[in-house]
Design the sequence.
């Protein structure tokens, strides 16, 4: 792609602050990322074993101006050259969301630029456009993050239909809770991914939950309880357990269900020949490999973002924001953070 920007290009400044990453990006026409600055708070929250909302809000406030400035500098842009500001306004933690929303509203008002509020999950889904210029709707997307597990039919760039969701824990939440139970530091998903490479995924047979009345839906709380029961039993009987085997077996139970349900959904949607992955858990190496294999076997085209675009980042908000902007979405100075913003 050429580096030159002309009047036909749409330049989006995007801001993301829904959880524990303060991020700003400059994205051209939804796919060309000129900068994607991410300040991760992981080191700040690690000592508490999870995200502390008040501390997250304070850290976002401290970093947001610097992150926005760096994103503009890296892209060699000024605020005057931006066509619109896109910002995550939900779902997420209310305090952290408010920091990004307030920053975006302040810039939009001072520079008289259009403001586009973006749904965080739509951002995760649109992350795939950044590195796959040939990807176009319709397609099926499995969104697996710390707070969400959704199978989404992406009918068009701004048209999303949720086909299945989790009934209890999100996939990432299950990874983080199991990691904590076996003494791995926060955030546990990536730690389990690493440890599992040294273990046998067939060592322990963990259950795969099935929701009778909604067979595409997910449920991970039973699996989490099964892991905790296994650990308790080992403790009570003074039996040593192999952490790598446990990590690999747990991971396999999650990945098998995610892939099976995605293939079932793809089989139900006749017009769908493409499957994508999105969200923090989409960077899981076992999930990426298993989904790639299953799609190849079913003759489906498969796309996944690079790990940096799987976990929270503003470039994905710039991609989603572009398509919302082109569809005419505009928000006013009354835009508010909505912690439980629904996808539909
Ligand atoms: O999308 P994300 O950055 O934030 C939310 O919107 O929730 O996802 C974070 C989640 C965490 O639960 C983290 O443990 C998980 O993604 N995660 C992983 C991996 N990398 C991040 N889970 C499994 N394997 C990984 N490699
Ligand atoms: Zn996220």
Sequence:
């Amino acid at each position: 792609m050429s580096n030159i920007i002309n009047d036909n290009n749409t330049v989006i400044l995007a801001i993301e602050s829904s959880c524990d990453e303060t991020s700003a990006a400059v994205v051209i026409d939804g796919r060309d990322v000129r900068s994607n600055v991410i300040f991760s708070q992981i080191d700040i929250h690690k000592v508490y074993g999870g995200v502390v909302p008040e501390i997250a809000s304070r850290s976002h406030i401290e970093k947001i101006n610097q992150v926005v400035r760096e994103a503009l500098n890296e892209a060699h842009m000024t605020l005057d050259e931006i066509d619109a500001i896109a910002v995550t306004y939900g779902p997420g933690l209310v305090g952290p969301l408010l920091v990004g929303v307030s920053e975006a509203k302040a810039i939009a008002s001072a520079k008289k630029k259009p403001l586009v509020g973006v749904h965080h999950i739509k951002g995760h889904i649109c992350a795939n456009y950044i590195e796959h210029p040939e990807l176009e709707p319709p397609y099926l997307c499995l969104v697996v993050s710390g707070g969400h597990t959704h199978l989404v039919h992406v009918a068009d760039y701004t048209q999303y239909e949720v086909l299945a969701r989790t009934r209890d824990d999100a996939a990432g939440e299950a990874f983080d809770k199991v990691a904590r139970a076996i003494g791995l530091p926060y955030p546990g998903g990536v730690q389990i991914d690493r440890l599992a490479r040294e273990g046998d995924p067939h060592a322990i047979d963990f259950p795969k939950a099935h929701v009778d009345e909604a067979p595409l839906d997910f449920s991970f709380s039973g699996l989490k309880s099964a892991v905790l029961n296994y650990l308790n039993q080992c403790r009570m009987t003074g039996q040593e357990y192999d952490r790598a085997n446990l990590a690999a077996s747990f991971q396999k139970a999650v990945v098998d269900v995610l892939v099976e349900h995605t293939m079932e959904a793809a089989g139900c949607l006749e017009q769908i020949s493409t499957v994508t992955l999105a969200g923090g858990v989409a960077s899981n190496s076992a999930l990426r490999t298993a989904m790639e294999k299953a799609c190849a076997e079913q003759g489906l085209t498969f796309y996944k973002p690079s790990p940096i675009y799987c976990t929270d980042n503003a470039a994905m908000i710039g991609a989603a924001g572009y398509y919302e902007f082109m569809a005419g979405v505009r928000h006013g100075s009354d835009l508010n953070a909505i912690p439980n913003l629904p996808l539909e």
User: Anything to note?
Assistant: The beta strands are 11-16, 21-28, 32-40, 84-90, 115-119, 139-144, 149-156, 159-165, 274-278, 301-303. Residues 243-268 form the longest helix (26 residues). The radius of gyration is 20 Å. DSSP finds eleven helices and ten strands in the chain.
